[in-house]
TrEMBL record:
InterPro entries, sorted: SAM-dependent_MTases_sf (IPR029063)
Record's protein name: Methyltransferase domain-containing protein
Length: 436
């Protein structure tokens, strides 16, 4: 080990039922002292099935240290942990399927079940869901009552909301915004909710043995696929202009490509990803990438394009104007600024929509971008004379200008690189790289 056992054990750690979790810059360590669980986790890691477990969604893990009374597991660190309300409904549904299939395999191969059934033990690593709470795995034959209630409350209800009808579809996202407490969660504790929530779901748990429950749950999930999300305004936007991400064609594409290839950022956050052209570009240049879009169908399509291109880009369904606040016990689940912070932030084709159409103050726009960015921001400024803005007939804020952008960015990013893009078709834009 690079560090002594004592150095590791003296580090601050977070709450865990079985051991302690130590989060470092490039990895996550999990210290286990219980003999029964040491035996189980050694069996899992050393089994011939471990690669299949990883491919099914178990967080990639290796043994970092072991003796009779101590086992230290080293987990792959997920670059961007997502809150459940940052998934699309389809992503949430697929994460639940992954989890139950993983639980099935753990039970069939090792006689193990999981203690918890809530979505805060899940996230996405690239386009694929993962389960990372390794020490939730324990020996067992039966599903506990607490597990059943957690799965129903935090997983099944939002999935049912998204699959029941187009009228209830949007409530799934609102329900998933709540962490342990909230109006929706409290409402669903009332008896009358069962009139909406199919009573047949609870019949799944009449026999609580794992070999009965898991197949029934999987069958229920497959029957409750979310309804197809609607096509919104930006779904048909031509982002690529028939170019490949690794071979830039337009001036805008070349500007972004040159910055990413020269700076070589470890992490890139694409704040208005659309179908992921620039996110895929950044990933192919070696970055860990989070692609955000607030249109659900567009975000799902972006995820599919990422998979088609064999890229490891994580997707989030997210509204730029409303960063996710911290949540959980002691606010241990960090806010989106902390979880998504990246070396370079891409804010392309965004500012005019949120600052003119949605009336977000320009200074707040800049502050949001700065809170996400460590080294620089690539911003596309659309001039008020641009045909796309002039046709809106919307009032333009007095401080909607490059001069004010420089002023608002200066406290963190005082240097700039710019290129103007104008065309005979009325396009008037400036690409700006703010950096230090």
């Amino acid at each position: 080990m690079e560090k002594s056992l004592n150095e590791i054990l003296e580090k601050p750690f977070s709450f865990d039922k079985i051991g302690r979790v130590i989060i470092e810059s490039d990895k996550v360590l999990r210290v286990i002292n219980d003999r029964t669980h040491i035996e189980l986790y050694e069996k899992i890691i050393n089994s011939t099935f471990v690669e299949e477990l990883f491919s099914k969604g178990l967080i990639r893990t290796r043994v970092s240290y072991q003796d009779r009374n101590c086992l230290i597991l080293e987990h792959k660190k997920i670059p961007f942990i997502l809150h459940p309300n940052e998934y699309t409904n389809e992503m949430f549904w697929e994460a639940a399927i992954m989890y139950i299939q993983l639980c099935q395999m753990l039970y069939e191969k090792f006689g193990a079940v999981t203690i918890d059934a809530h979505p805060w033990n899940l996230s996405y690593d690239g386009p694929n869901p993962v389960f990372f709470d390794f020490s939730s795995i324990t020996y067992g034959k039966n599903i506990s009552n607490n597990w059943m209630l957690e799965f129903e409350k935090y997983m099944a209800i939002p999935i049912k909301l998204s699959s029941f009808s187009k009228k209830t579809y949007g409530f799934s996202l609102e329900y998933r915004k709540e962490h342990n407490q909230g109006f929706g969660l409290k409402l669903m504790e009332k008896r009358w909710y069962s009139q909406f929530f199919n009573r047949s779901f609870r019949k799944i748990f009449q026999d609580n043995s794992a070999d009965v429950v898991y197949p029934k749950l999987l069958k229920w999930l497959l029957k409750n696929k979310p309804v197809t999300s609607k096509i919104e305004y930006w779904f048909n936007y031509n982002q690529s202009h028939n170019a490949k991400p690794e071979i830039p064609k337009t001036e805008k594409q070349k500007f972004v490509y040159n910055i990413l290839s020269n700076q070589k950022p470890e992490k890139v956050l694409d704040l208005a990803a659309n179908k992921g052209f620039y996110s895929i570009m950044a990933e192919k240049l070696g970055a860990k990438v989070l692609a955000i879009d607030y249109e659900e169908r567009t975000a799902d399509t972006c995820r599919q394009k990422v998979m088609d291109n064999n890229c490891n880009v994580t997707i989030a369904h997210f509204n730029f104007c409303y960063p996710t606040p911290a949540a959980g016990i002691g606010l241990t689940l960090k806010n989106s600024f902390d979880r998504f912070r990246s070396d370079i932030v891409l804010a392309l084709g965004l500012i005019h929509h949120v600052c003119i159409k949605q009336n977000l103050p320009v200074s707040i726009f800049c502050n949001i971008c700065k809170n996400y960015a460590k080294e620089g921001i690539v911003l596309e400024f659309v001039d008020p004379s641009d045909i796309h803005i002039s046709n809106w007939k919307e009032p333009v804020p007095d401080d909607y200008s490059i001069l004010h952008l420089k002023k608002y960015m200066k406290d963190k990013f005082s240097k700039i690189s710019m290129v103007d893009i104008t065309t005979n078709e009325g396009v008037n834009r400036t690409l700006i790289y703010f950096y230090n």
